[in-house]
Amino acid sequence: MLKWLSVVIIFIVFIALLAVTLGNTHTVDFNLIGLPTTKWPLVAYLWIAFALGAVVGVLAMFDR
After folding, report:
1. Residues 6 or more apart in contact with residue 27 via CB below 8 angstroms
2. Is 59 exposed, middle or buried (0-12, 13-18, 19+ CB in 10 A)?
3. What CA–CA distance (Å, rounded) separates 25 from 43?
4. Are 8 and 2 within 8 A, CB to CB?
5. pLDDT above 90 covers what percent of the chain?
6. What is the pTM of this model?
7. Are 8 and 22 in contact (CB under 8 A)?
8. On the chain, which terminus has fewer CB atoms closer than 10 Å, C or N?
9. Taken in order 37, 41, 46, 48, is the CA torsion positive or negative?
């Protein structure tokens, strides 16, 4: 029962991420202090932020 619940939750998260991806394809400017301006789709910045957050979260779980 718990395995099916986890599969359903993963499917719901996948559908939500797909909806965010398809809804945010507009090109935006990204300005960071001292770096040149880049123009990428908003979804690229969102996925980069998600990946960096996941890496930081996993690294935070490790003991020193």
Report:
1. 39, 40, 41, 42
2. exposed
3. 6
4. no
5. 31
6. 0.61
7. no
8. C
9. negative
Closest CA to 45 of 53, 33, 36, 57: 53
For residue 13, give the H/E element and its range: helix 2-23
Locate 14 and state its tokens.
């996948």
Tell the residue number behind the tokens 């996941």, with chain if given: 54
Q: Identify which of 25, 18, 22 has the alpha carbon closest to the alpha carbon of residue 41.
A: 25
Distance, CA of 2 to CA of 4 (rounded, Å): 5
Q: What is the mean pLDDT of residues 13-30?
A: 86
What are the tokens at 39?
């123009």
